[in-house]
Write a structure and sequence with these properties.
This protein is about 35% helix and about 25% strand. It is of the alpha/beta class. The protein has one domain: Rossmann fold, CATH 3.40.50.300. The strands form two sheets. The protein has a six-stranded mixed sheet, with helices on both faces. It is globular.
Length: about 270
């Protein structure tokens, strides 16, 4: 059976698609463990949605479900729907490889390949055999400039990516994700192992990137969420406790669990 790429639902072409992802009654079990319960979320287009919550609350499981990174986990059982461009990402006919080009992922620790800096940027589009050497260089330059890395590496593109600092490696991973032209970028605590300077560089980059991408950013750092979030989702014990505009939640949340977590970074859910 032919697999399907996730493309915009033709019934809504011509309208402004404000919500690029909708999550409906979504639940996840891993063996006997109920990780996520009845998740209901809408992810706005071209904004930064930050997901916060204590360790083990289900944040990573949630975003890894959006582009099906969790598929290989033993004992995984899901219910409900994640809708992207009008279609369920878990439809049996969905082309998962294509889905992951449309919804890119950046992990907590930089994941560079044992290749050159340039080859890392091009890794996701290496199947395009008809690209000339000049075109490949232009693609690498474009995306390294986007992540503010070009000036630092333009003279050493053939060096191994592992020779870069951790902060540079993480920006390289983002450049590699951008090269396949996704619509959505998922970031799972991408700055947790970085120094403050590298962290701020990535935060500033995300604010610029939201002009062209929808960004879902998991963070354990409440101050970071304050700096970059347009929308905030607070998850505890596998449940969405509160969601909405970050400015409202930070300034006048009425939910006692949210208020306690934002104040003390502790949630007794």
């Amino acid at each position: 059976m032919e697999q399907k790429a996730i493309k915009p639902n033709l019934s809504v072409v011509g309208k402004t698609l404000k919500e690029v992802i909708q999550i409906k009654n979504f639940q996840v079990w891993i063996k006997e463990n109920h990780i996520l319960a009845n998740i209901q979320l809408s992810i706005p287009k071209n904004e930064i949605t930050c997901i916060i919550g204590p360790s083990g609350s289900g944040k990573s499981t949630l975003i890894r479900s959006i582009n099906r990174i969790n598929d290989g986990i033993s004992g995984l059982n899901i219910q409900g729907e994640i809708i992207f461009n009008g279609l369920s990402v878990n439809d049996k006919d969905v082309d998962v490889a294509q889905l992951r080009t449309q919804i890119g992922m950046v992990f907590q620790k930089p994941c560079v390949f044992p290749k050159s800096i340039k080859e890392n940027v091009l890794f996701g589009i290496q199947h395009l055999k008809n690209l000339s050497k000049l075109e490949k260089l232009q693609i690498a330059e474009e995306h390294l400039k986007t992540v503010s890395l070009w000036k630092e590496v333009s003279h050493r593109l053939n060096d191994k990516a592992i020779s870069l600092s951790l902060g540079q490696q993480q920006r390289l991973c983002i450049a590699r994700t951008l090269a396949v032209k996704p619509e959505v970028i998922l970031l799972d605590e991408p700055t947790s192992s970085l120094d403050p300077v590298s962290t701020r560089a990535i935060e500033e980059m995300m604010v610029k990137l939201k002009e062209n991408y929808t960004i879902i950013f998991v963070t354990h750092n409440i101050q970071q969420a304050k700096r970059i979030a347009d929308n905030l989702i607070f998850i505890c014990d596998g449940k969405v406790i509160e969601q909405g505009p970050a400015s409202r939640i930070f300034s006048c949340s009425t939910n006692p669990q949210t208020k306690a977590y934002l104040r003390d970074e502790y949630c007794d859910c």
